[in-house]
Design a protein that fits this description.
alpha/beta, 9-stranded mixed β-sheet, 34 strands, 16% helix
């Protein structure tokens, strides 16, 4: 039997519905980030940098781009004969066929995969956070405490603690109580959704709760472990960690990359972030172009102005176009004379000439005011914006739009224009 000390199970099946049109056709972990990467690159890079060479990636929602991106794991040195990276979608069994219904249910359905490696420890990760962490240090902490479960936690402002699972510990880091999104939190130690389980503890709890509908780690597995006398410890992490689950936090995390002294540094030699690299021509900045405080991806061609923005690979900014405080993802085109202000433009978008995106007053979005907010204008992938139109703030556009979709040439602040195969939805 193959023996691995610790294997990782990476949960990457989430839809990420709070990212709106950005995740309409792609799973949240496959969304582009930082001009070059996809969100899943960060936990995958953490694994190989931490010496973990066996990773199961659990996919479900819109997995195609994620599967293509990961492939056999070459960019992360995870193309191994023993272990390496494995894509684990739901599959039909002889007795049943079911989707993953919760985080722990997804892990339970892959019990046979884990048993192949006879691990001492299993690391459970989410595929949608931006951070750098040495999981080996966390494992050392787990061993030192003779823990059954170690939960990575970080201190958050107490007024934000109600958004998280909150841990209450004794003086030695042992978890005595925890509350899932409490209204009045008694601690500011928030779970990061990163767990190390001793294999025996994980196996026992998953089998015991196998019939629990929507079985989830925070709601079901951790309470079971605590109630059955297992040793639970909080591992405090004080580095950079960002859940890019909303358009606001996603935009903010990209903008933080281009701070003069970035809080999250992509350029550290000792902790590299790896990704699948496309073979592209070099970037080109024209003689009369203006570029300041930006990340510019390979193959990008800049003929206009770009300020304080993250520009993906193979993006064209045409002459007279001005992009400011925005994210433009790979293979998109911004037409001559157009302006984009605080916009998120997804992949393969064509913005026509003399278009204004992110203008005017803010208004609550008519469709999903909690999602399309933060003063952003969001354009979904493969969309087309015709010439000479204006798009306001807190807006969402998706699909191949035509001039007739914009009364008087305007989509006002708070507007939504979502089309599928040419039809409005």
């Amino acid at each position: 039997m193959i023996k691995k000390e610790m294997i990782a199970m990476l949960l990457a099946g989430g839809q990420g519905s709070r990212l709106g049109v950005l995740t309409e056709k792609v799973a949240k972990p496959a969304v582009a980030f930082g001009g070059k990467y996809r969100i899943i690159d960060f936990p995958l890079s953490n694994c190989i940098n931490s010496g973990i060479d066996t990773v199961g990636v659990l996919t479900q929602y819109q997995p195609l781009r994620l599967n293509e991106h990961i492939g056999i794991g070459i960019p992360w040195d995870l193309d191994r004969n023993v272990g390496g990276v494995s894509i684990l979608p739901p599959y039909e069994k002889s007795t049943s066929s079911e989707w993953y219904t919760g985080t722990a249910n997804a892990i339970f359905q892959n019990m046979a995969y884990m048993e192949r490696f006879n691990p001492d420890y299993v690391l459970i990760l989410s595929g949608d956070h931006i951070y750098k962490m040495d999981y080996q240090v966390m494992l050392d902490y787990h061993k030192a405490n003779k823990a059954d479960v170690t939960i990575a936690c970080m201190p958050v402002p107490i007024e934000e603690a109600s958004r998280f699972g909150v841990m209450i510990t004794d003086g030695n880091g042992r978890i005595t109580e925890f509350e899932e999104k409490p209204e009045h939190p008694r601690s500011n130690l928030a779970s990061m959704g990163i767990y190390i389980f001793s294999w025996k503890a994980l196996r026992e709890s998953l089998i015991a709760l196998k019939d629990q509908p929507g079985c989830d780690f925070g709601k079901h597995i951790l309470p079971y472990c605590r109630d059955n006398g297992m040793r639970l410890f909080a591992y405090e992490f004080n580095g950079y960690w960002k859940d890019v689950g909303t358009l606001g936090s996603y935009w903010e995390a990209n903008m933080e990359l281009i701070d003069i002294i970035p809080e999250f540094n992509l350029y550290e030699e000792f902790w590299k972030v790896y990704t699948k690299g496309d073979v592209l021509r070099p970037q080109y900045v024209a003689a009369d172009a203006v570029v300041d405080r930006c990340i510019i991806g390979e193959g990008a061609e800049i003929y206009g102005e770009v300020h304080n923005s993250v520009i993906g690979a193979d993006v064209w900014i045409e002459k007279g176009a001005v992009v400011r405080d925005s994210i433009i993802m790979r293979h998109s085109r911004i037409g001559a004379g157009s302006s984009v202000e605080k916009g998120i433009i997804a992949e393969n978008v064509t913005v026509g000439e003399n278009v204004k995106i992110g203008v005017g007053e803010e208004a609550p979005n008519v469709l999903k005011p909690n999602i399309y907010a933060f003063g952003l204008a969001t354009v979904g992938e493969n969309s087309v914006i015709p010439d000479n139109v204006s798009i306001g703030k807190n807006t969402a556009v998706s699909g191949k739009t035509v001039p007739e979709d914009y009364p008087e040439g305007i989509l006002p602040g708070g507007g939504a224009l979502l089309k599928k195969d040419g039809e409005e939805i």
